[in-house]
From TrEMBL:
InterPro entries: Cell_Proc_Reg/RNA_Proc, FHA_dom, SMAD_FHA_dom_sf. Signal peptide: none annotated. CDD domains: FHA. This is FHA domain-containing protein. Residues 23-73 form the FHA domain.
Length: 210
């Protein structure tokens, strides 16, 4: 199944499988993929799935444009495996096929199995980037398990359990830290204003009432 891997400065922020005929991307919350950044238009672009794996991308008249492998998209274009899409500071890698039973699904099962009693699920969680050119960018944590990082450097999984949010180091030689302390394979709870250091990027964990 085709998939899109979105990153900012090498840190993965979204991983989406293209299951629908049309998958929209933009800043407004009605989109399938929401990138809340001023450089992203309200309805920025759309990915159209035909058959099992043929995917086209089309810009929806965005202000700053959609770039495919370095050139601005002027018309609907067919995507090929490992194509690179750029929208503002976001980089999106297109993969034509994947096994959903692989790493991400395995991580989901592993972390959920460890869930233990704890806090409210009515809170909205996000990470705020503190360093680099993307400082100030907020990345919502909306899935049961969300992965962040660079596969060849360091990847963490943030799990939303019944009683709160937890982070664990999944893979990579560089160990992440939480408030200066190393994060290992054993999931540890996240609290409001915790600072996660991951692959050279500082991110502040935020919890807000729903």
């Amino acid at each position: 199944m085709p998939q899109l891997i979105t990153s900012v400065e090498g840190v993965e922020v979204k991983h989406v499988y293209l299951r629908k005929d049309r998958t929209t991307l933009g800043r407004r919350p009605n989109n399938d993929i929401v990138l809340n950044n001023p450089l992203v238009s309200g309805e920025h672009c759309v990915f159209e799935l035909h058959g099992l794996a043929e995917v086209h991308v089309e810009d929806l008249g965005s202000t700053n444009g959609t770039y495919l492998n370095g050139h601005m998209i002027k018309a609907r274009e067919l995507l090929h495996d490992n194509d690179a899409i750029a929208i503002g500071n976001f980089r999106i890698q297109y993969l034509a096929a994947s096994e959903e039973s692989g790493y991400h699904e395995t991580a989901t099962m592993k972390l959920d199995a460890q869930a233990s009693p704890g806090a409210s699920t009515a809170l909205h969680a996000s990470f705020k980037v503190l360093s680099g050119s993307s400082a100030g960018l907020e990345m919502p944590v909306v899935k049961t398990v969300t992965t962040f990082g660079q596969p060849d450097v360091s990847v963490v999984a943030v799990s939303h359990r019944r009683y709160g949010f937890y982070v664990a180091h999944m893979t990579g030689a560089v160990q992440p830290t939480l408030n200066g302390l190393p994060v290992g394979a054993e999931a540890v709870p996240l609290a409001h204003n915790d600072v996660l250091e991951l692959a050279g990027t500082s991110m502040q964990f935020l919890l807000r009432d729903g």
